[in-house]
Design a protein that fits this description.
The protein has 24 helices and 27 strands. It is an alpha+beta fold and 711 residues long. The strands form eight sheets. Strands 14, 17, 18, 19, 22, 23, 24 and 25 form an eight-stranded mixed β-sheet that branches. Strands 5-4-6-8-7 form a five-stranded antiparallel β-sheet, covered by helices on one side. β9 and β10 form a beta hairpin. α5 crosses α6, α14 runs antiparallel to α16 and α21 packs antiparallel against α22. It holds the Pfam family SBP_bac_5. It is found in: Cell envelope.
Amino acid sequence: MLGFLALALSGCGESAWNDPYPAADAEANVYYSSFAERPKHLDPARSYSSDEYAFLAQIYEPPLQYHFLLRPYRLVPLSAAEVPEPRYFDAAGNLLPEDAPVAAIDHSDYLIRIQPGIQFQPHPAFARADDGSYRYHSLSPRDLRGVNRLADFKETGTRELTADDFAHQIKRLAAPWSHSPIAGLMREHIRGFGELADRLAGLESADAPARVAALRQATLSGVEVLDSRTLRIRLEGKYPQFQYWLAMPFFAPMPWEADVFYAQPGLAERNITLDWYPVGTGPYMLSENDPNRRMVLERNPNFHGETYPSEGMPEDRDSGILNDAGRPIPFIDRAIYSLEKEDIPRWTKFLQGYYDASGISSDAFDQAIRIDASGEPMLTDVMRERGISLLTSVEPSIFYMGFNMLDPVIGGDSERARLLRRAISIAVDFEEFIAIFTNGRGLVAQSPLPPGIFGHREGEAGINPFVYEWCNGRPERRGLNEARVLMEQAGYPNGVDRETGRALSLNYEAVATGPDDRARLNWMRKQFAKLGIELVIRSTDYNRFQEKIRNGTGQVFMWGWNADYPDPENFLFLLYGPNGKVEHQGENASNYANPEFDRLFDAMKYMEDGPERQALIDQLVEIARRDAPWLWGFHPKSFSLHHRWLLNAHPNQMANNTLKYRRLDPEQRQAARRDWNPPILWPLWAAGGVLVLLVLPAWWMVRRRERSTAL
């Protein structure tokens, strides 16, 4: 009977009896969210997933950050006092003007001035004994008895951020044991980076304390600490995109004390590592790390302070997003992230009010979103009644169909192959793909450049004229008849090769891992069949797919790219000949090479944003559209929901440190939880009824026996 009662209570999906969060937390200034992928790396030198980035950006503070509201994306100071401007020098060390020819520039200097008064979060690595020595830098096995987590070290300390902390982190990027994914790129640009990496390579087999000691003593010629708050970074030649790297966690400061502390024997076995317990100067610190259950960020008591931005886009004045302008941030005291591997529990808890924000899975899309007559997404009545808001933004990404330009049929720069690629570009209807497979969450791409990236053009000036025409104020895909004419001009009337008399057959390299892939691949076959082309699906796992792309053995494939930084160079370099995948192991997966494109790209990538750079970008895009090494595909759209009590929720696809801007109304949230999750009492009444039905006969039998005995 008790077992039945417990089962009935636990089965109340929306019952207050099953409230996953205590009332004390619900009433506090706490933000509730979830993560789907177990974070592994919280060391800023390592590679990391989107979930890991969400934690890193709250804890670590690189010199720069992206403005929360302004578009196109703009860099503003974070731990730096100002955005550094590069100074250019020739080989003799003479200062050159800003417009000096690239060939004349021997090196560029970036002078980074650090804001005074920034303190690291409390941490045992900084704790000192009475004599001034570090309390926990010489731990013995006896000292570690009873120590199982960082909080078991009773003493903590802090100190002020210095330029040396940035220099130490850059040296960590060069250390082979850090396995930094940007080490190869920085080797090309930071002077002396490669030499340092080579010197440190011999220490990979050394123990951790020896490696840290060697790293502290090592020098890097391109990174010089001028004083406690000034750092100079010297780059080879000219590389304007380096400013964007200064906004990434890779360049966040790392105190040498943390490296020394975590390198001690016995700590890694207890999961007391930098990946588990990061050390930063940001608005939050990781106070609880159980990635198999939940992770908790708490306000850093040593945070130096920052104010909510006072500048935004013209429409921001009326939207209310600037209501907190000038107020100190962060607003939220604590953020609790729970692991939710499945979409349904995450979605259900959001609807119950236990998560403050949520994405929208495909299964829940129709419950949350409806598309109006003009094709725009709108919230359903149920969502609006609950006061839920929808945020949409185009991501700085592209999913494209690539043609292997080394292939003798679909590739090359012959007019025949070019016309064939253009015909396919018209036939493959990505508007339909977006509607069917992404619930409308995408924008058809007209070039490699997404909206929000300098060089992207809107309206009629931005369409791909080989695939679209401008009609009634909007782009319309050219008809199949035009595509069939192109096929005939290419020598493939009705999909038959005029020279051989055989039907044209192309191979499509695919990564198929689940049942949903079958519908997508069948759709792709039908697109090519419109032109009489037989599409042969060659499905494999991702490793084998990558091998085919590296070797250039495929013909047609789908791939994507997400911006590392919001600069056109970060997209157009995907078509740059010297980045070819087969010959140079670069990111140009289609192996496209056009000498004129490469020449213009070399000139464009070093230029500052402005009319001259825009003119070069327009020429680059025109060449790529004419040659059609890609079918441009689509830019994905991000859809997110948030409850009415979560304020200052604003999409920023380049920044991940937006938690500090958000504000809560906990009382409104608690009231909504009570309204949406009333106690479901029928299981109690049902259990009570069953109990009565079971007890009453037994009681009647006992009474009857007692009467019989009395007689």
